[in-house]
């Protein structure tokens, strides 16, 4: 998911490096050395939230404020693909499974949420059965049923012309998924025949092939229930019916969302959520520097979780008191440049390889904020995702590029120069700076790229994720950041490499890569029970993708989060790209 998290992102269910052992949220707190800052307030210390839960508390009351410099793709749990929205949406939308709040890799622990237990596989992993908890209710007091979960999957995966922002795993893998037209076109009550609901608390998924990681798939917000009678398609975002511990009090598109306690949420049905603050406010289109100031003042959380801005970073890292209130960790993400393999002349591998050799990755790393922001990358899979194997298909001295090799590849491609466009998100200054560094590298070898900036909220729906748009606008290169939808090679690779993930809008396979070999390997991997064998297949996919040169790995992303002192239960989790787990953040005592 994009950091995305889409995604997803996505923003992005990915593994991060766990530092030391730590207690779980429900039973422990951080034991980091205390530091007293310049205001006389004690801090848990730098990186404390990567080791344990900082300011563990069950205190209720107050307001938790999140801030974002742009707008999310959608608050609709069935129409989002950013990691931070996967994280936040659990406050008002309960999926069948979710991730247990905990530090680092501990946060990758799958636990039942709406479901009473993990899925029961049968037929070699082609059929999965889930039982819902008893006593589940929506915000209006009506019961939540298995039919609502079935409908949620149908609307989010089988109506791509209406809801195009999330992944389409269910559409790809459900039996007869290619024949079902979706709930907005199919007016019958039957729906997709391969999802059965024999009673109000049982849901059965019939897949066309074995899917050994299906529990991870149902942890996406696409399985959060939606009552069919209340669904208004793309406008459902205006009146989301809550199944979680909070509900929407108000929603102003492009401005803010306010959530308050859901009175019909029953803690007896939910061992994970604590419903601590009275109110949760999500402010949109806030100046990035203002967000940093509010975070360091302890009054807001950076919703997107990409970390402090470059100017703030320098201030924080040189001030021991401020550094003590930060968490620097791997985000389980890859920052990369997607090369449009369908756009001439980048449809030729030699032209793509010219880009690979031309880029000075050190200059990109510097533009992103230096090593604290990421290590120089050379593979598709980050080191903390199963299947990673160290490799560098386009190695250059000190990772600074090789002009001679780049020009040789350009010549082999039949070109002496190329004119193209490169996209970056207008509200992400470091991404823009990285794109500018790439432009400077490419110019030295005769590839002239002009920068096109687009807002992150519509980056995939209207611009980089729309093949017709990129073709028409001569967009050959696109800045991208990706984190795994779940912590496995498949969870990382599927939505950016599988040809079936290419869509006419909202696509995350920005390279439009459609390799039969890679598609077949992905299918083989997810059906393989043996973990070691499955991981070796992910390694093969990585190698094949790099041989085809359809994306340029830039850095293995790291995040530098400001940790607001006024909030409780802060823990940096692997499940959501190193972000703080938003499920149980509260307000500290004054």
Automatic annotation (TrEMBL):
The keyword Protein biosynthesis does not apply. Keywords: Signal. It comes from the Bacteria. The keyword Magnesium does not apply. PANTHER family: ABC TRANSPORTER SUBSTRATE-BINDING PROTEIN (PTHR30290:SF83), PERIPLASMIC BINDING COMPONENT OF ABC TRANSPORTER (PTHR30290). InterPro entries: Peptide/Ni-bd, SBP_5, SBP_5_dom. Residues 109-501 form the Solute-binding protein family domain. This is ABC transporter substrate-binding protein. Residues 1-32 form the signal peptide.
